[in-house]
TrEMBL record:
<dbReference type="InterPro" id="IPR000971">
    <property type="entry name" value="Globin"/>
</dbReference>
<keyword id="KW-0479">Metal-binding</keyword>
<keyword id="KW-0561">Oxygen transport</keyword>
<keyword id="KW-0408">Iron</keyword>
<protein>
    <submittedName>
        <fullName>Flavohemoprotein</fullName>
    </submittedName>
</protein>
<dbReference type="GO" id="GO:0019825">
    <property type="term" value="F:oxygen binding"/>
</dbReference>
<keyword id="KW-0813">Transport</keyword>
<keyword id="KW-0349">Heme</keyword>
<dbReference type="GO" id="GO:0046872">
    <property type="term" value="F:metal ion binding"/>
</dbReference>
<feature type="domain" description="Globin">
    <location>
        <begin position="1"/>
        <end position="134"/>
    </location>
</feature>
<dbReference type="Pfam" id="PF00042">
    <property type="entry name" value="Globin"/>
</dbReference>
<dbReference type="GO" id="GO:0071949">
    <property type="term" value="F:FAD binding"/>
</dbReference>
<dbReference type="InterPro" id="IPR012292">
    <property type="entry name" value="Globin/Proto"/>
</dbReference>
<comment type="similarity">
    <text>Belongs to the globin family.</text>
</comment>
<dbReference type="GO" id="GO:0008941">
    <property type="term" value="F:nitric oxide dioxygenase NAD(P)H activity"/>
</dbReference>
<dbReference type="GO" id="GO:0071500">
    <property type="term" value="P:cellular response to nitrosative stress"/>
</dbReference>
<dbReference type="InterPro" id="IPR009050">
    <property type="entry name" value="Globin-like_sf"/>
</dbReference>
Length: 141
């Protein structure tokens, strides 16, 4: 499966124009729809976290044409998420919430094709982050 890079880039350029709305929408929905993940963020500086999340999404979209860069960045990010108490099942709730926030922000531009492109991209991101997490755990054991 190859990702629809053009569609991911063009739809994300629209999100970049409303980054604060996007991240506010993401965290609001995450905590309302999945209150069980709230404790993971108990010590987190919630002023900074949305900016960090957005920066990493920018990096991901900018690296779609450089698989090595993407793989390294995501494996590293995934291994750090073990320290934050993140479990594999949490990736599904974050994926649902990213897609929901994209849908809300993109409005009419959220077509079936765009939805499919992001859903496939998130699966790849999740897979690489979980691989990084698994490798980091294996190094500790
Ligand atoms: C696409 C998937 C994800 C991306 C791009 C992402 C991005 C980030 C980034 C950039 C940070 C800042 C720290 C660092 O760079 O290591 C971070 C921290 C964090 N993320 Fe994620 N994350 C993702 C998935 C998740 C999931 C599934 C959860 C679980 C609900 C989660 C919970 C957290 C928590 C608790 C922190 C720590 C904040 C702190 O206290 O410093 N993230 N994430």
């Amino acid at each position: 499966m190859s990702l629809n890079v053009e569609l991911l880039e063009s739809s994300f350029s629209q999100i970049k124009e409303q980054r604060t709305d996007f991240t506010t929408c993401f965290y609001n929905n995450l905590f309302v729809d999945y209150p069980e993940v709230k404790p993971l963020f108990a010590q987190t500086q919630m002023e900074e976290q949305p900016k960090k999340l957005f920066k990493s999404l920018v990096l991901i979209v900018e690296s779609l044409r450089q698989p090595d860069v993407l793989t390294n960045a995501l494996k590293g990010l995934g291994s750090r998420h073990i320290d934050y108490g993140v479990l594999p099942e949490h990736y599904l709730v974050v994926g649902n919430t990213i897609l929901k926030a994209l849908a809300i922000c993109l409005e009419d531009a959220w077509t079936l094709e765009v939805e499919q492109a992001w859903s496939e991209a998130y699966s790849v991101v999740m897979k690489l982050m979980l691989e990084g997490a698994k490798e980091a755990e294996a190094r500790v054991l």
